[in-house]
Specification:
Chain B: Its EC number is 1.6.5.3. The structure holds 2 protein chains of 2 kinds. Chain A is an alpha+beta fold. Chain A contains 15 helices and 8 strands. In chain A, the strands form 3 sheets. Chain A has a 3-stranded antiparallel beta sheet. A 3-stranded antiparallel beta sheet of chain A has the order 6-7-8. In chain B, a hairpin with a 2-residue loop joins β2 and β3. By secondary structure, chain B is α+β, with helices and mostly antiparallel strands. Chain B is built from 4 helices and 5 strands. Chain B starts with a helix and ends with a helix. The interface between A and B is medium-sized, with 30 and 24 residues.
């Protein structure tokens, strides 16, 4: 093309953010109608990497679907497999030994910290700061090393089994986790000074990107997005599962509704997860990690089962309709980012594009989990 | 006016705090590994692609029960076997018996999700995870492993 493009002052133009855009952390396309730098209307287009996980859950046996669940969200994979094993265990009535439950809680919380750390780095990078990402990745690497030593893989874990775990944790893991907690606490202080106190960072986020509690309810947003809007809801507290009632931890809630509130919720959550890991390591009972009579063939009795868990991104629900055969009749996943993303269209109307992208970053998107 | 100066002061303060932290980090020991020249040891439970385990005579332990093939969610294992006759002595008498012998164990690593179902479902301890991770190629044929062949090569 030659010659400059002339846009009349009253004219809007369409801007495509994505499908491959560094700010979207995956294959997401947002079609934005722009008036200069302001967004008039935004439309999220999903489905570029859809992989039919739900259908796969229907034509494969229950154990065969296990590895799929960790592919939903590669940053916080354990939370999703946790939901699946809990749902099937409840459906099929499988007892889980206490030690296995504790190890699950410890590893899930470590995974949550790893996920939040990566989000923290990527979020600051969205806003133009690169160094914090490097620091966050270094801390996260400690968690990945620990989890690799027990689960055998670094990101897409397939560690939980119906009734227990694939294998037990060893003393090295416990020692490493114990050494990690003070290290992480120190790092959190460092992040606080480096990022939270930074004036540029604050000016980019404070009072910008409002997501009200009302909007969260309308679209079903959960997790840190809802908690940043003053909704005190955490599946771990409100519908306790596994051994969470045994732990003493708080649910951070902020009422500012802006991007900074969501940031603060996640930073505080890391501290709470550390507390859970600390208590879990202390209370970790001895014993088996699989029940004595773990069924080889899993055939839950006919019925409708639902189980929700709190993952790093919010409430993840899994619904299994069983007809008594070895694979599910209906397998439906309710993934948190999908609802968190749906409110973006409405929330970003009238915002500047850079602020909207900062808000998108504060939603903590992982697209494969939407396009499941 | 006062707000103007206090903002400048706050900005400078947060700038120096940030610079101080990065300066301190600068003198910390390096944590990265110069990859092709240095490698790290894989953890005990690291899952690479699967590998057959041999018995004392160097034959695969596999009895071709097919559990791994059926358990695999991605369908990346394909087996073939033939039955051979062999003679055993039962109470002084020679009897011919049949048994299955593995003739092909193909792993299509391009679709393997490294879930571990195959190793878990094998009741005969005939497969394990290898520690290999330096697998890079631009041809997908390089990831179709003939595990039986690999076993023979290991033994020779
Ligand atoms: S690890 Fe899983 S996907 Fe890979 S061959 Fe074994 S069962 Fe199949
Ligand atoms: S499960 Fe084990 S014994 Fe059976 S076919 Fe597979 S490798 Fe062979």
């Amino acid at each position: 093309m030659s010659g400059p493009i002339h846009i009349r002052p009253d004219e809007t133009f369409t801007l495509n953010v994505g499908p491959q855009h560094p700010a979207t952390h995956g294959v997401l396309r947002v079609k934005m109608e722009m008036d200069g730098e302001y967004i008039v209307k935004a439309e999220t287009v999903l489905g570029y990497i859809h992989r039919m996980h739900e259908l796969m859950g229907e034509n494969r046996t229950y154990p065969q679907v296990l590895p799929n669940l960790s592919r939903l969200d590669y940053l916080g994979a354990l939370g999703y497999t946790h939901g699946h094993v809990l749902a099937v265990e409840r459906a099929a009535g499988i007892e889980v030994p206490e030690r296995a439950e504790y190890i699950r809680a410890i590893t899930v919380e470590l995974n949550r910290i790893a996920s939040h750390l990566f989000w923290f780095g990527a979020f600051v990078m969205d806003l133009g700061g690169f160094t914090p990402l490097m620091y966050a990745i270094e801390d996260r690497e400690y968690i990945l090393d620990m989890l690799e030593a027990v689960t055998g893989s670094r990101l897409t874990y397939c560690y939980y089994r119906f009734g227990g775990l694939y294998n037990d944790v060893d003393d090295d893991f416990i020692a490493a986790a114990k050494a990690f907690i003070p290290r992480m606490r120190k790092s959190l202080k460092k992040y606080d000074a480096l990022v939270t106190g930074n004036i540029i960072f604050r000016k980019r986020l404070e009072d910008i990107g409002p997501i009200s509690a009302e909007m969260c309810r309308k679209y079903g947003a959960t997790g840190p997005v809802a908690r940043g809007a003053g909704i005190d809801f955490d599946v771990r507290k409100n519908e306790p599962y596994s051994v969470y009632p045994e732990f003493d931890f708080d649910v951070p809630v902020y009422h500012e509704c802006d991007s900074l509130a969501r940031y603060k919720v996640r930073m505080d959550e890391m501290e709470q997860s550390l507390r859970i890991v600390e208590q879990g390591l202390e209370k970790l009972p001895d014993g088996p990690i699989m029940p004595k009579k773990a069924p080889k063939l899993i055939k839950p009795p006919a019925g409708d089962y639902y189980q929700a868990v709190e993952t790093a991104r919010g409430s993840f629900g899994i619904r299994i309709v069983s007809d008594g055969t070895k694979n599910a009749y209906r397998f439906k996943l309710r993934s948190p980012t999908y609802s968190n993303m749906s409110l973006f269209d409405e929330a970003c109307e009238g915002m500047m594009i850079m602020d909207a992208l900062a808000m998108m970053g504060s939603l903590d998107l992982v697209i494969p989990e939407i396009d499941r | 006016m006062g707000a103007y100066f206090s903002e400048i002061f706050l900005g400078l303060k947060s700038l120096f705090i940030g610079l101080g932290i990065t300066f301190k980090e600068f003198f910390k020991p390096v944590v990265t590994v110069a990859y092709p020249y240095q490698t790290i040891k894989m953890s005990e439970r690291y899952r690479g692609h699967i590998e057959l385990i041999e018995d004392e005579e160097g034959n695969p332990k596999c009895v071709v029960c097919g559990m791994c093939e059926r358990g695999c969610p991605s369908g990346c294992i394909s087996l073939a076997s033939e039955s051979v006759e062999y003679e055993v002595e039962v109470k002084g008498e020679m009897k011919t018996k049949k048994k299955k012998v593995l003739t092909k164990y193909d792993l299509n690593f391009t679709t393997c999700s490294l879930c571990g179902q195959c190793v878990e479902s094998c009741n005969f301890g005939a497969i394990k995870f290898s520690k290999e991770y330096n697998l890079a190629s631009s041809r997908k044929e390089d990831f179709h492993f003939d595990l039986l062949n690999r076993l023979k090569e290991r033994n020779s």
